[in-house]
Amino acid sequence: MTDAPALFAAREPIFPRRVAGRFRTLKWAILWVTLGIYYVTPWLRWDRGPNLPDQAVLVDLARRRFYFFWIEIWPHEFWLVAGLLIMAGLGLFLFTSALGRVWCGYACPQTVWTDLFLWVERRVEGDRNAQIRLHHAPWNARKARLRATKWTLWLLISAATGGAWVFYFADAPTLLRDLATGRAAPVAYATIALLTATTFVLGGFMREQVCIYMCPWPRIQGAMMDPGTLTVGYRDWRGEPRGRGGVRRQAVAEDVGSAATARYGAAASKEVAAPRTARDGAVLGDCVDCNACVAVCPMGIDIREGQQMECITCALCIDACDDVMAKLDRPRGLIDYLALDDRPPVEPGETADVRPYAGGWSPAPAWRHVLRPRTLIYTAAWAAIGVALLVALFVRPEIAMTVSPVRNPTFVTLSDGSVRNAYDIRLRNKHGEARTFHLALTAPDTLRIALEGTDALTVEVPPTATHLQRVYVTARPQDPAAGRERTGFRFWVEDLADGERAHRDTIFNGRESFDERTGNAG
Amino acid sequence: MADKRPIDDVTGIETTGHAWDGIEELNTPLPRWWLWTFYATCVWGLVYVVLYPAWPMVSGATAGVLGYSTRAEVAAEIERVDLSNAALTESLATVDLAVLDRNEELHRFAVQAGRSVFAANCSQCHGAGAAGVRQSGYPNLLDDDWLWGGTMEEIAHTVRHGVRNEDDPDARYSEMPPFDWLEEQDLVATAEYVRSLSGLDHDAAAAAEGAGLFAENCTSCHGEAGLGMREVGAPNLADAIWLRGGSSEEIVAQLVAPRHGVMPPWGGRLGEAEVRAVSAYVHGLGGGERQVGE
């Protein structure tokens, strides 16, 4: 019996090296923009008039309202939010089928906050090599000081993260004052504590473990990619066989040249140095096996091994490799955004150097990867839902009235033989001040309307509230509607403040075939 | 040591050493923190078992050292709500019902509370929609016809003391004597006259004959015009509502062997505030009457 295999493995610490480049710059920009939106949004003000909050974005859980600038969503309109979620889902499909896991690499909070934490880590402990040294160093005053500094900064960022979150759910200035003076609701402190803890642990210590072992997106997104999807990859046909020194294949430069011209223009396809052989005489590809792509990877993988579930496509390996290629005076893009079907129909071992892209093959230009039937269908569906939601949002009535006929019983006979139906009418007043609504009806036959609890035909609805009013509709014994089984009619409601009207059609139930006066059927 | 571990030739990955039909299982270790998470959930479970009700026993379950129960939580919640409503309940129990609707908040509270009281206590006979059951003689509470009065105060009295029960001396009480001694044709004639009072189809000759019989036997309670008398719970015979049916046969049946509805007194079972609440609810179902002089 050999040693029992280890069924559990400890996390291998990863020390990503600092890197600069076009994608790093883009990622910094996205980081500051997204974090800026996150922290600033709750503090934006938006005047809605009296009795309504002046916070631009507010999720009012207690009163069940969602405010977003000029849009106000009530619980019965929550399907709009469902529509937004569907759009978000379709948007993810679209981006993933066109550009792979861009969400993971650029916009996911886990990536953004980990980036921020890594930045802090480098400012405190230094870059990769210094971090590795510190990791292996025994505990001493310096290590303790650096660790304490780093953790304190992380904790501050975490607290600010959790702290910003709660401001979306209450008036931000008031809540900040209450938080500072210890008078805020316990749930606010609990939420801040929880989010501080999760941010600290997930961003500081779990990092890539979250993506690999906790998050479902890598599996789902992986399943949504296809050979035409642009994603971060390694041009193995150009880079292999890898090695230091030696002869670089001349033809590689040519095929790279044609691909690079197609994607990046003529400047990229400059002539390269004459072929060199490795010390043992082998002809080598462009990869000098410097491991720069591995050192900068926040997921701790080697992109040259091909597509991997762990890869979040943060594109930092592209920056790292471009840097090296520039120093070697080789064209950029050995590691690059490319699609699986960009791979030329030759094997690395084959003599690609003598017949570059035989048969007139050349990689598709980038726009062909982005504009495909699949992405266009996603775009169309996404846009259709978006337009439908916008239309629904702008045509939704200011007066919301629902009419539910009381069906237990369907009608009541009054002492004078009249037939009465009852209706529960709900009136919503979305305005910041109380509104008076006038109720009326139009019917082909004479029907009379009366309101429970009042002799008037008006109802006052308090600001931003729903009012339930029972309404009686009566047909006198001689009226046709009293004897007929069903009579359609229309309720009208008018907002007396601005004259806006709305209506609902409903049914009046007569005595049907049952004569309650005598109790005889027929 | 390491070389002792079996390595898969193709992938270069360590195997578990298990082989089935020549197929070996690669060893892909799980993250260690998963194991710790699993242990943490075990600890959580153990602590929970100690603190909270957990193991089912023959009757009930282990109590847990915190003594928590959902039942007690519900009771506490009800107590909390009752406490927060105490002021409203107190005012409702003492307010003059004639002017209840002037206090909008209290009136709304009464109607909402009354809806629950009605559903729990009254709907069994009067129906969930309060439309009554005519075949069984349970009156419809939605219409504007009241045997014992339809103001909120009168409804509350009926609820509090009931009708024709033997438990409450203040119960509403009336009794229609059986007219089984009348001849068959006199009974029919009286019934035809009663039908004529409310404008139903009737045999005019028989009705004319029945007019005398009605004046002789019925007017003391139902009044000369048959409009009834609420003081003695005598129904209005000239309206369109028939608790026991308005056909000639049904009227004759009621003459020969009158049926009388019974309603238990709710004053002892419900609190005063609940009696008033359910009265406010019933009053607001469409037939409530205003106090005279309002």
Blueprint of the fold:
The complex is a heterodimer of chains A (522) and B (294).
Chain A: E1 8-9, H1 22-40, E2 57-60, E3 65-68, E4 71-73, H2 79-99, H3 102-107, H4 109-125, H5 128-136, H6 141-166, H7 172-181, H8 186-206, H9 208-214, H10 217-224, E5 231-234, H11 236-239, E6 247-248, H12 250-264, E7 283-284, H13 292-296, H14 316-327, E8 335-338, H15 366-370, H16 373-395, E9 400-405, E10 412-413, E11 419-429, E12 435-442, E13 448-451, E14 458-461, E15 465-475, H17 480-483, E16 486-495, E17 501-509, E18 514-515, E19 520-521
Parallel strand pairs in A: 6-7
Antiparallel strand pairs in A: 2-3, 3-4, 5-8, 9-11, 10-11, 11-15, 12-14, 12-16, 13-15, 16-17, 18-19
Chain B: E1 15-20, E2 23-26, E3 30-31, H1 32-51, H2 70-84, H3 86-94, H4 104-121, H5 123-126, H6 152-161, H7 184-197, H8 204-217, H9 219-222, H10 248-256, H11 272-283
Antiparallel strand pairs in B: 1-2
Helix pairs in contact in B: 3-11, 4-11, 6-11, 7-8, 7-10
